[in-house]
Amino acid sequence: MNTLLLVLSLILAIVSGGLYWRVHRQQKVIEAALAESYGADNTRDPEMILTLRVRDPIALAKRESKSARMLADRLPVMVKRLVYQEVMKELEMELAEREIDVEMKLEYR
Asked: Which residues neighbour 38 within 8 Å (Cβ) at sequence distance 6 or greater?
């Protein structure tokens, strides 16, 4: 019985040590990420990002395209993706006309 308790105690001590080591390592990773994100002296300004969301992409596609009227009910995900790509192209063209340099990308959340 004593040997069983001794073995269980050793196993628990090893598991506890491993967990402590992982927590300690994770804290170092978090501290490094925070230092990198805020800069060396925590004075770096946050980056500003503009987010655009089309409220009803299916209705927009149906209104603007004859082929989208047929596809919207059958393939809504594809139609939404195409709407966002087209909106992005039009925004890029408009901003290029006004000589505004932007970086545009489509993100899925």
From this structure: 44
